[in-house]
Write the structure tokens for this entry.
Amino acid sequence: MKERNLFQIVTIGIIAIWLVIFALIPNIMVFAVSFMERSEESFIKAAFTFENYRAFFSSMYFSIFAASFKMAFITTLICLVIGYPFAFILARSGSRFKSLLALFVIIPYWTSALIRTYAIKVILTTNGLINTFLIKAGVISEPLNMLYTQGAVVLGLVYTLLPFMILPLYAAIDKLDTRYIEASQDLGASRLQTLAYVIIPITVPGIVAGCLLVFLPSLGLFYIPDILGGAKNILIGNLIRDQFLNSRNWPFGAAASNILTIVMAFMLFAYYKSVRAINRRVL
Amino acid sequence: MKKLLTVILMSLALFSCGKKAEKEVHVFNWSEYIPDEILKQFEKETGIKVVYTTYDSNEAMYAKLKVLDGAGYDVTFPSTYYIKKMSDEGLISKIDKSKLTNYKELDPALLNQPFDPDNSYSVPFMWGTTGIGVNAKYIDPSSVTKWKDLWKPEYKGKLMLQNDVREVFHMALTALGYSGNSTDEKQIEQAYEELKKLMPSVRLFNSDSPKVPFLNEEVYIGMLWGGEAFRAQKVNPDIKFIYPEEGVALWADSLVIPSKAKNPENAMIFIDFLIRPDISAKISDSVGYMSPVVSSKEYLDNETKNSRIIFPTKEDLRNAEFQLNVGQAITIYQKYWEKLKSGK
């Protein structure tokens, strides 16, 4: 009994120290800095001002925010449309086939995301795999401009984040009691009706969880628009990085990052509320 | 509670394992700036181990050194406009030139510059130009003579700019006839208006390896560093380098020793090695930038020696301007840079 206590204290202690040093303290620092002023010599000057937050609500930063949300929304939608059928097949397939499919989802994660993004670049570039193939096959005569477009950025985001959509959906669909489906069919519902009125409503928590897990990171993956989009657009992640590195405006970068955190917190709160409401309704 | 405290202390002790002292030099350098063979040769000749880390912008290097308060590295390579800032802020230490046996080999024209009179803090490493790169297969190089030519509508979707706020605004300000180091908001805004007109032509912004989009034929024309053009030519001779009439942007990177370097003696040996004529020539051959070591010329490859990219004529460098520190005005640049990219 005693030993177990020690074990508990050690594990919880290490996690607590970890969180305090690498999450709590940095966040408090970011929060504090966001109310200070920029200094040419030492990054920040002790002061108390709301200027950094006020500056954020100018039309330019608002449009950067809007563009980031649009990109994240499109990415989430595509991930959902691809991920849902995949998760469904995954959950409903035989057990041996199932683990193989799940392995396929996870394997790319053994390679760094940055390297995989460069690999997409090699495939899309003017004399890359797709263009070379299409020209050799006689489908096109001029190479297509695929790299450095919005489409390439969306492709990169979808590719990187798809597993975050599939895994929670898989968990939700896997738990789905087949008796509901049988009951629905016994009562004369068509396959489409069963899907729309039975399967999807029950798996909503998985859908919302997957959407959040895709939406939130896609706001911050600054290297994908840089590498695949040719750095032509500033998204919220790039904005924050540039404030810290290029213009050395730490207070403003901190304010922008806090606003993003607050928006994300609101969305997580909405998720929490919706899941509770759904659980009450369905069960 | 006591138990918890012991656990905390125990786990903290894990982080602070001691490290054995060894003869080494910690080098913090731009990516693709010194070939591996040179580093190996240094280790072989001196027995000092090189611990090598790279960065892709002055800003990134400065931010890291500033946060570490001048510790962590023994040698780094800031551009001219960062040297004054770093020495003013006490981030780099003075260099005893009498200990550098090869200092006398340096080109006097590159010494005693305003950013570091008497070179108390810095030793030139390489210098170069930012001009226009053109793929002759698609665009007649003789039709491109000035920065203003980049605005021609026929280059739509085939143009590349550096992904560097200072470089891009330097180009636009020069094209307007202003100084590339302007701190006047009106002039910077005017440059922004011009760049906005250029945006529909821009295929991408790239600063980490600008030759690659040229070699992949993603772009046919754009801003390019001389050295990148030189290396691109070795793969595709169609890639030409043009010195724009309004004036090229000049930059120079120097060797400095951060103020809290752990191995300053080894750093001095490393610096002296890099400005040795045969070594400097080898680096110049490989990276395509100009060596500040006069006598390095006799060690250069013929290809390098005869290249106008490496050895521009007086005419090529007419109106050329060094990039300088713009101080607080960097926030104005950054503001218009964000405006430019957010399409507002």
In short: The first helix of chain B runs from residue 2 to 15. Chain B has two domains: 24-127+251-305, 128-250+316-342. The two ends of chain B are 57 Å apart (CA to CA). Chain B touches chain A at residues 3-4, 7-8, 11-12, 57, 59-60, 63, 66, 89, 157, 163, 165, 202-206, 216-218, 327-328, 330-331, 333-334, 337-339, 341-344 (CB under 8 Å).
